[in-house]
Specification:
Blueprint (H helix, E strand, L loop, with lengths): L3 E2 L2 E2 H26 L9 H4 L10 H11 L2 H4 L11 E8 L6 E10 L2 E6 L13 E2 H10 L9 H7 L9 H22 L15
Antiparallel strand pairs: 1-2, 3-4, 4-5, 4-6
Helix pairs in contact: 1-3, 1-5, 1-7, 6-7
């Protein structure tokens, strides 16, 4: 079962830190795209012409996203992390029959294999379907939405590392450095896009 401490599901909390901001940013862009269909207002101009939106990522960024979707062990077969040059693609679709939005997830393993493998069917709520209802993706985003901005993580971390009378100052400094490194890395993982959606350099979702 899940590891619960202080009434918190630790697994979910880690997912919020490592991939919560990314999956919610993906969800936000898909929702804006849907809301702006057929509209020409100033709030929609920037996204109406965009066909794709690109994120620069590391292996652990992709792993964090897959972990939120519950497919990391089903999709990644090499040493637990994606290979160099791995990539994942999320496509937004609209069904002409029921007029509802769907998403399709594919995976590029490495530079030795150019095949794009469909992997949506590995996501449990998608029940084996290649095209999955977008509300399933939104549910994952809602569950892992960060509770507070990442820059508020530092004071929490600092509070647990106060100097102790029986510990030398240099040892506390080393612990503080490790804490700061963790916070910086968490920010990098959680705030992945670093891209102003209204910038000309922004690509689209």
């Amino acid at each position: 079962g899940p590891l619960i401490m202080n009434n918190l599901d630790i697994g979910i909390e880690i997912q919020k830190i490592r991939g919560g901001s990314l999956i919610n940013d993906l969800n936000m862009h898909m929702n804006i795209k849907l809301q702006c269909m057929g509209k020409s207002g100033s709030n929609c101009t920037w996204i109406n012409g965009l066909k794709y939106y690109v994120y620069s990522a590391h292996d652990d960024t992709i792993y964090a996203l897959f972990a939120i979707l519950g497919i990391e062990t089903k999709v990644i077969s090499t040493l637990g992390y994606p290979d160099y040059s791995a990539a994942t693609f999320i496509e937004l679709w609209r069904n002409r029959t029921d007029d509802r939005p769907y998403f399709k997830l594919t995976y590029h393993q490495n530079d030795q294999n150019v095949t794009l493998y469909p992997i949506t069917h590995y996501i449990d709520p998608c029940k084996g379907q290649v095209y999955c209802s977008l509300d399933k993706f939104q549910a994952f985003a809602d569950r892992t939405r960060p509770d507070q901005p990442m820059d508020q993580a530092a004071p929490v971390c600092d509070a647990t590392l106060q100097p102790r009378p029986d510990k030398p100052n240099h040892e506390y400094s080393q612990q503080k450095l490790v804490c700061d490194d963790f916070v910086d890395r968490s920010r990098e993982l959680a705030d992945q896009p670093f891209c102003d959606p209204q910038s000309k350099a922004a690509k689209g979702h």
